[in-house]
Amino acid sequence: MKKLLALLLVAVLMVGLFAGCASTDTTDTTDTNNTNTTDTTNTDSKEEESTESDSSEGNKRDHINVSLSSSITTLDSMQTTLAINHIVAKALMDSLTDFDENWDVVPALAESYEISDDGMTYIYTLREGVTFHSGDPLTPDDVVYSVERGKAAAPLAATFGKYCAGAEALDDRRVALHLTQPYTPFATIVSKELVIHNRSYHDEYIAEGHTEAEYLMHVDGTGPYKFVSYEDGVALELEANENYWAGAPAIKYWHGKIVTDNNARALAMEAGDIDFVSTQVTIPQSSIATLEASDDVNVIYTDFMQCGSVLLNCRLPEFQDVRVRKALNYAVDYDWLIETQTEGKGVPISCAYITEKTTGFSTADSIVNYTYDLEKAKELLAEAGYPNGEGFPVINAVITEQRKGCMEVLQQCWAELGLTVEINVVESSSVWDTIDSGNYSVGIVFNNVMPDTTMYDWYFGDPDTGALNRTGYENPELWELQEQAAVEMDPDKRQELFDQIWTIITDECPVVWMYQQPQMMYAAKGLHVSGTYPTNSVVHWNEFYWE
Amino acid sequence: MWKFIGKRILLMIPIIIGVSLLVFTILYFTPGSPGEILAGANPQKEVVDQINHELGFDRPYHVRFFEFLKGVVQLDFGDSYTSRQPVIGEILSRFPRTLTLAFCSMIVTAILGISIGILSAVKQYSFIDYASTVVSMFFSSMPSFWIGMMLLLLIAMNNPWFPINGVKTWRGYILPVIAISLCNAAPLMRLTRSTMLETIRSDYVRTAKAKGALEKRVIWKHAFKNALLPVVTNIGNNFRALLGGSVITETVFVIPGVGSYVVEAIRNKNVPSVMGATLFLSVTFLVVILAVDVLYAYIDPRIKAKYTK
């Protein structure tokens, strides 16, 4: 028996060995080999590079050390939703248009654009003399190719992919983007999402035997910096693009250092090992004060906000009564919440979860603002048939570990009304799954601000139009207004629509608004940085310089 | 001897299959999907489903498991969900750093632990014995990441010669190796001391002393070799633990090793990376255990005799 088993195992081992040998011919193993060789060459060039630049430190600062919070998985921002990928990709790739400091759409690779009367075609005129890092000139055909890539990219399926029907080159400078339906924020979406690739470079790269996955780390863009090397888990090296269409960046070398641990990152910033930490890259709450006190670091509060809100599951009978929803809003001690969760840095929300820079931000008098008023909350709850919370079902709160603190504060606030909250911590990879299954009563979400109000329909949009409706709040009047605002091209009329929309949403409150949290950047003293831009709070790397 | 090694290598096969099955099953039953992570904030359900489909995450349990096993036979662990690069390449590019860290720490741990352990056993109840006991108590109660952070704060922050993070040059390894070694050397020193004391008091050592052998010879030749066995086991175990478990030290010192790779992969529901890395680590563990067992034979002839039988 023992011998038989031994023989069997030997046989398995042999099969393994031979299969291993045989597979040298298959593409799988070749890929692995290729990647390994690329990795080694990258490492070598990087080490040379870094010794060179380290020696120049202390003299004229011609480089910047940027903190990266994790490995970079792609340099094509259309293929990813990871903020750090977007922040890096902004150095390498450009879009047809960009945002200015007020988050309005401004020319970039396209020097102008016009919209057809029916709102179904956007014609972009390309800037003259723009070249890719490889030296190839930018052509309308590259735009057509990039639009094809954007339409096929999964992360853009609900936005660019949904509204863009395709592109065609009109002549050697103009390119037309056709829409599937009129959609006013389309220009904003192009600014935010579409990046321009070099078609011929891509085709040649693939023809050389590289995979599409490898291309994603070796893109050819028009951005202010050029790719030099990348070592997984360690560093990304970029070099200034001297031919950048908006003028060469002042800082020549761009070193991205991958530091995954938040405390280690704060320490490195303090020690001067890192010059810049962008928003969306975490510095622990406890280290912020140390960095603020440091003479070598500037802590910059940006206009880029994260808005925290609590979704109420309006499919549940208890939340269908607007008085209950209002009671929950009035019962929140906002000052206490902001003090404990953001060390006082958060700000109360004045217009649902958008900020002044968002197109459609409303200052109308009809907007309802909620302040802490326990008596009023108790009254409303009693009117709704739950005096002192009697008979109110247990509130099942779905929450990630990171936001548990917020929920605990709300738990105590709502306990004053006699309500019981049961906190269910779930993995961040399954929070939406849980919420979409409807098996929750409340859930905390944090959103990055968007440049246009129409982009917010995640919680109470019209499901018939394919919009998200996570709260299950149904209001045909609201949906009608949202649909009008999505196609209205006159700015004043559009603003009127938004005033009405936000009035309804704040008054009906399918959500409890908590606070907005300004996102911070950290820069070494003497480093001039740019502002932050939607939606992943990217920065304009070409505007950085040492004073 | 060779037969023994061969047998052990064969036994690795069922162990590896078992490990794969276990890890794969656990990952299968944990909630969440990579699509939710990759689709970003407030994802549309269709987008999440599309990404999961592209990654093959929506296929049935047995299809995915056997595909993985098929890949393992060809030394192909599949492509990472996040970077879409082959997992094996990512692991191999990180493993040298983990191995260097573990190996250096093992050497320093052994030198510190064994030498001080012997010294305090030989000079029992002396000042050295008491001092080393106190120091070792202190370090064995401190977690290595805390020592690591203290080293960073007290040494690296004030001394630019030590890099604050990363292992671009060999200097980057010094502080993490010290942090790990101090923690591991402390219990090793206690172990060496107690086994040495035990052997020193045994009859054959007394006999050796009685027949007039030199003190030095008695300690190194007679006592030490017999006391070494549990010490080697301990060092081997430490080494194994370091290969997969120095995650926290790797994180504190920002060393992109295999440990931090697995942790990140688990967080992202990156199944191919988790499977690839755990399998890779379990093979390495098995090899280290085998090496320790072989080492036994060289230290203790009685065990060698047993193996040959």
Which features does this protein show?
heterodimer; A: 547 residues; alpha+beta; 4-stranded mixed beta sheet; 17 helices; globular; B: 309 residues; mainly alpha; MetI-like fold; 14 helices; 78% helix; flat
Can you put this structure into words, describing what you see?
The complex is a heterodimer of chains A (547) and B (309). With 547 residues, chain A is an alpha+beta fold. Chain A has helices at residues 2-22, 27-56, 83-92, 140-152, 160-163, 186-193, 199-207, 212-215, 262-271, 285-293, 322-330, 334-342, 374-383, 404-415, 431-436, 476-487, 491-508; strands spanning 63-68, 97-99, 105-107, 110-115, 121-126, 164-169, 174-179, 225-231, 235-240, 253-258, 276-277, 297-312, 395-400, 421-426, 442-448, 511-524, 527-528, 532-533, 538-539, 545-546. In chain A, helix 9 runs parallel beside helix 10, helix 11 packs antiparallel against helix 13 (374-383) and helix 12 packs antiparallel against helix 14 (404-415). Chain A is globular, with a radius of gyration of 26 Å. The N and C termini of chain A lie far apart (79 Å). Residues 20-59 of chain A have low confidence and may be disordered. Chain B has 309 residues and is mainly alpha-helical. Chain B has a domain at 94-246 and 290-307: MetI-like fold, CATH 1.10.3720. The mean pLDDT of chain B is 86. At the A-B interface, helix 1, helix 2, helix 8, helix 9 and helix 15 of A face helix 1, helix 2, helix 3, helix 5 and helix 7 of B.
